[in-house]
Amino acid sequence: MISYCTNVHPAEDVDGIVAQLERYALPVRERLGADRLGVGLWLSAPVARGLAEDAGARKRFRAELDARGLSVYTLNAFPYGGFHDDVVKHAVYRPEWTHPDRVAYTIDCVNVLSGLLAEDASYGSISTLPLAWREPWTDQDDRRATEAFGQVVRAIGDRPIKLAVEPEPGCVLDTVADALGWLSGRVDPEHVGLCLDTCHLAVSFADPAETLKAIAESDVDIVKVQASAALHVEDPAEARDALAAFAEPRYLHQVREFSGGVVRKADDLPEAWTDLPGEGPWRVHFHMPLHQDPAAPLSTTTDVLRTVAAGLPGEPHIEVETYTWSVLPDAGDLVGGIAAELEWAQANLVKEGVSA
Asked: Contact at 8 Å (CB) between 40 and 316?
């Protein structure tokens, strides 16, 4: 099942979430002509706590989803709240996995997902942040985070719920290799695995086929794939004016340059012009619509996504996660855009014989 992630919608209370689903998810499903549509829910911490503590509220929310033909297989528990504030930037990485609020929020999400999980689901997945922004981070933080994951696993118990850790540029677990190194031998592989965000993977300039091989050789499973594409810039100097439209103030847009056989780093797009030499191609952490190619000289990394999809072992959850519609230049109609992305995903990512 392919889902689309509802972190594209700003609602942070149950009534608002239902209204957003009515306004967007229902017409997307109808436009696709589908009996059911997968939604990867994002629930802010207060919403998750309220639903976790109130079985009746969960039942009513489940009824609202069913009434609209919406199925839930996965939650996105990376942002804790305020994901559509005027400025988000580094705040999206708080609270860290060393903080009890992160543990409590994740356990709330486990309890909510247990009550919403689609009847045909073999498991439910919850994607989460890669521990924290990279600094400050200490050995003591490592130990605290390890214990925090243990707490969540104990709370999961025998329920078919899995956490999916999502490496992201600039974080403690910056790359897939970092995530494999940290998770392997440290967490229960039955309940904790990898969320492979293909925008983040592309930004890191890691080879997607080699990455899949490394994952297959580890004891860490791919629990969830966030189907996403980064901006690719072959010649930064040529693309400076075109990139200016993407240097917006809400989200962090990490940039990586591959030059001289080395991946060079900048923490945000405005900083890239001074922090990077501009001697090789850039990739920018800006989630781009899967079905659209930006005007030259910009392009996207959907080739990385296609390579990952073709080589995926098993059938992990796939979630289209273009949360940037509100800050895209010339974004256009959101219902039409989400529907077009899902059509593209069905045509390009789903293996033969597997229904979206």
From this structure: no
